[in-house]
Prior knowledge:
With 442 residues, this protein is mainly alpha-helical. Helices cover 73% and strands 5% of the residues. It is built from 19 helices and three strands. Strands 2-1-3 form a three-stranded antiparallel β-sheet, with helices on one face. The protein is elongated. It starts with a strand and ends with a helix. The model is unreliable at 49-58 (pLDDT under 50).
Amino acid sequence: MPTYQFEAMDATGQEIKDVIEAANEEEAHQTIRQMGYFVTKLTLKKAKKTAAEKKLKRKGKTFTLGRVNAKTLTTFTRQLSILQDAGLPILRSLRILEQQAKPGPLKNTLIDVCEEIEAGATLSEAMAKCPKTFDRLYVNMIKAGEAGGALEVILRRLAEFKERAESLKRKVKGALTYPIAVVVFAVGILTFIMIKIVPAFQKIFADFETELPPLTQLLIAIAETVQHYWYLLPGIPTAIWLFVKLVRKFYHGRMGFDMFLLKVPIFGQLVCKNIIARTMRTLGTLVASGVPILEALHITKETAGNAFFEQLYQKVYEAIREGQAIAPPLKEYSRLYFHPMALFFWTFFIPIIGALLYLPRMNERVLDDMVINMVDVGEETGELDTMLYKIADTYDEEVSVLTESLMSLMEPLLIIILGGMVGFIVIALFMPLISLIQKLTG
């Protein structure tokens, strides 16, 4: 017979904690009332699994590495939302999705979640025990949906939120994939020319004792450098990446690099607008789902992905705890400030003029007046979530337009740069050839 753990109050108001055996939850309530207690909390006590049950648990699970990727989790959330809209019980919905899931991290997680629910846990409690799959934002929204009796509505909002976030991520990745692929391909071809083609021409010029023009001498010097130090081509970018990764392990290093990213030419706007769109939509979704504003700000801070924005939301969180509204501290603390590590990264990545570019930008704000005023109006009218959604939609659109503009700018820029490199090689090789042909025909 199932065992229930209960908390109750007796006639004098004293708190009682005990366990009781009953066929079901209703019978447990009746028995406790007959004992003269008023039930305040009743949960099914999780029984110890027998060896057969443990074996059954392992049967459906497979060995996997890594986490559930964002795309898979987004699809799962949408499917769970549809099943809940159709009126299916949550456990049955999860069982359906677990059976159709391919062997992997998600299937293993759903097996664990179903077992926790069968043992008496709520959906949010079961998901909280799988932090590698369901983050704090996900769990808190589910908890708010359970508390308000609107789980299907919350799941729908959560699915829409994840779909928009995934769409924005795809746009940004798509914008960066093309130029990176072209640059890598071009570097590979130019390296091949320097190592294989230029030495062959150099041998021809040496055999005919042709006087080489300065342009050709420069090309041969570059080719010899590439031949001797070719390993630096992948080595230098890798070393820079490892150095940045190491520096970002420290708080001030991470803060300086993230502040540099927000104002770096060309890509800084894209990074900043992307973060604003994501954090405002996160905060709006949490507020609309009934999550308390302080908890919503704490979760938003954790999902910002940028040290300066994390600091910004932390200061807003502290200001609200002291009784202030959201808009004033949001405006006050959204202004950048001088940071020595930010100056270091500006001079490191943009030599000579880096410091000159940084000084005018170091006190700029990351949130403009439109965002502050919309948040202020949302607080005054009681429609903060609606205003936050509007801000997110606006910045999503700006990110989309900026991404397309960068793509339009990148294509001709890459063509000009690659064309200049190829033109330099062709001219440098053919100038002595023309001189050699003239000598032979003379």
